[in-house]
Design brief:
- With 403 residues, this protein is an alpha/beta fold.
- 38% of the residues lie in helices and 12% in strands.
- The protein is built from 14 helices and 10 strands.
- The strands form 2 sheets. An 8-stranded parallel barrel has the order 3-4-5-6-7-8-9-10, surrounded by 5 helices. Strands 1-2 form a two-stranded antiparallel ribbon.
- Strand 7 (214-220), helix 7 (242-254) and strand 8 (258-262) form a beta-alpha-beta unit.
- Helix 1 runs parallel beside helix 2 (78-96) and helix 2 (78-96) packs across helix 4.
- It is globular, with a radius of gyration of 20 Å.
Length: 403
């Protein structure tokens, strides 16, 4: 089933494989245009044979960037993005005879911005990154964001992208506003208020773009953080899909039917969205619990919204069972497309090799979290196991500093 084509809104996807967005923190400093490292990563993605390359987080404004090297498309650098997409498509066409569908994330990093911009005071998040009330963004500031998303979407189309992802996940601004139970004003308290920013932004983007331009969203269905500080959870930190389903129902009515499922917050509980064998702490749950959570969430959402199309995450963990589990998730109607993130950094040609009968499990991601370690230490990010450049970077810039 993974090799089957899929048509969504008259757009043909050549297979069910999605390269997930993986931030490299490697764009040109302050400018946001792709660097040589960025270009190399996406050309490697093109060699995978995947139907979709879901490009990494692109900040819609300078103050919404996680770092000075985060991707950010502007009027001044749009030509660099055009050139990157040209090379990506030419690479894929040469090797497979078809070009991938290219979708780019649009985001505001909120609490994780260079200067934190928060929706409300969050005692759990603030244990690792302290802030003050002065970091709380005003309603008036939030009012300006939908138009910035529209502007970024138009630039993405000009650059040649096939679609955009109005991103609401992983504790970034839109996702944090969704959990703003304690926030006063027009963007806090009730579900209608908390969902207003995201819904207004994605509605404006959809209305501004042509019908054949994809408008999708990557959403943290549950933060796995206790209410009132997490979305899609109860006070005792159990999943509660009531509000996430309500949100998806609104999106479906708006004609937004491609949803990239993720869970948790990698800045707080990375084991939830990226189950790991080795990481910065020992989780309270085994990786299998987290993997099963993806299965159950996907199955429930697909059952509730049979006419929506879901990308599922968490697959990079499986290594030798990668394609067996991918097929199971598709056949069990947990998703329509299967997404691979960390794996694409470790073994870019994993799917192409699979098609040739040459898949090598020993090249797959080890779920060791070193790509994230590089990012957290303000370095460009990549696979520090199988890629010599990033392996040396980890040794020189991280491990040596700890001694």
């Amino acid at each position: 089933m993974i090799n089957e084509q899929l048509k969504i809104n008259n757009i043909l996807f050549k297979n069910r494989v999605v390269i997930q967005p993986m931030e490299g923190c490697d764009c040109e400093y302050d400018d946001g245009r792709p660097s040589e490292l960025t270009l190399k990563k996406y050309i490697n993605n093109a060699r995978s044979g995947a139907a979709i390359i879901w490009f990494e987080a692109n900040a819609v404004c300078p103050e919404g960037r996680t770092n000075h090297r985060q991707m950010m498309i502007t009027e001044k650098n749009v030509e660099a993005f055009k050139d990157m997409l040209k090379q990506v498509r030419e690479t894929a066409m040469k090797e497979f005879g078809y070009a991938p569908i290219c979708i780019i994330q649009l985001t505001h990093s909120g609490r994780q911005s260079i200067v934190p911009m928060i929706a409300y005071r969050h005692p759990l998040y603030e244990k690792t990154r302290p802030v003050t009330d002065e970091n709380i963004v005003t309603d008036e500031y939030l009012d300006t964001l939908p138009d910035l998303y529209v502007k970024a979407a138009k630039l993405a189309k000009e650059a040649g992208f096939d679609g955009v992802d109005v991103k609401s996940c992983h504790g970034y601004l839109f996702q944090e506003v969704l959990s703003g139970f304690t926030r006063p004003g027009r963007y806090g308290g009730s579900f209608e208020n908390r969902s207003k920013l995201f819904i207004d932004s994605i509605t404006k983007v959809r209305e501004a773009m042509p019908k054949d331009f994809i408008v999708a969203s990557r959403i943290s269905i549950t933060d796995m953080i206790p209410k009132p500080y997490g979305f899609g959870t109860t006070e005792d930190n159990k999943m509660d899909l009531t509000e996430p389903k309500k949100l998806l129902g609104i999106l479906e009515k708006l004609g937004i039917n491609l949803i990239n499922i993720t869970l948790g917050n990698p800045y707080y509980n990375p084991h939830v969205n990226r189950p790991f064998k080795k990481g910065p702490y020992t989780p309270e749950e085994k990786p299998e619990v987290g993997l099963n959570r993806f299965y159950e969430v996907g199955k429930e959402l697909k059952k509730t919204f049979p006419n929506m199309y879901f990308v599922i995450s968490g697959l990079s963990y499986y290594r030798e069972n990668l394609f067996e589990m991918s097929e199971k998730l598709l056949n069990d109607k947990c998703c329509d497309l299967v997404g691979y993130g960390r794996l694409s950094l470790a073994y870019p040609t994993f799917y192409a090799d699979y098609l040739k009968g040459q898949f090598q499990a020993n090249k797959c991601c080890l779920a060791c979290s070193n790509c994230t370690v590089l990012m957290r230490h303000k370095q460009v990010a990549g696979c520090a196991v199988f890629n010599e450049y990033y392996r040396n970077l980890l040794k020189e810039k991280v491990l040596c500093q700890k001694k």
